[in-house]
Amino acid sequence: MDMNDFADRAGSVANGAASADIAICAPVASPAPWRRVCDLDAIPRLGARVVTSVHGNIAVFRTAADEVFALLDKCPHKGGPLSQGIVFGRKVACPLHGWNINLGEGTAVAPDAGCTRRFAVKIENDAVFLLI
Ligand code: FES
């Protein structure tokens, strides 16, 4: 398996505060091909796995229904590690102050505001691929 620019690992790293700029909600435009990051079973249901990349740490979440979502592992509030949050439905609760973040859009649930960058992700043959 070609892992080139990134390697996956358990756990996560908290980074500095994120900007609340709406522009960072947009998925990263990348000419790169899809990259296999792990088997689906390597991500716990209602949990996440962190993939390091040139864009920073990416949290890849798995829901109870086996959907996957990928967000920059940085809460839009004060940069908390979303990968360590609690996944419920299609949201994750940040472990630092409890903001809820929509996994599909990367946006904070009102009344909170802000967003974190999202990444295209897919499942194919029980493996997870990121477009980064
Ligand atoms: S850093 Fe996530 S809720 Fe404060």
Task: Provide a descriptive summary of the structure in words.
- With 132 residues, the chain is mainly β.
- It has one domain (8-131): Rieske Iron-sulfur Protein, CATH 2.102.10.
- The protein contains no helices and eleven strands.
- The protein has strands at 8-9, 34-39, 47-51, 58-62, 68-72, 86-88, 91-93, 100-102, 118-119, 121-124, 127-131.
- The protein has a five-stranded antiparallel β-sheet with strand order 1-3-4-5-9, with no helix packed on it. A three-stranded antiparallel β-sheet has the order 2-11-10, with no helix packed on it. The chain has a three-stranded antiparallel β-sheet with strand order 6-7-8, with no helix packed on it.
- Residues 1-22 have low confidence and may be disordered.
- It binds FE2/S2 (inorganic) cluster.
- The site of FE2/S2 (inorganic) cluster has 10 residues, from loops.
Number of domains: 1
Main beta sheet: strand number and arrangement? 5 strands, antiparallel
Cα-atom Rg, whole angstroms? 13 Å
Bound ligands, named by name, code or SMILES: FE2/S2 (inorganic) cluster
Helix-and-strand structural type: mainly beta
Mean pLDDT: 84
What separation lies between the terminal Cα atoms? Answer: 16 Å
The top-level CATH class is Mainly Beta
What do we call the CATH topology?
Answer: Rieske Iron-sulfur Protein
Sum up the overall morphology in one term: globular
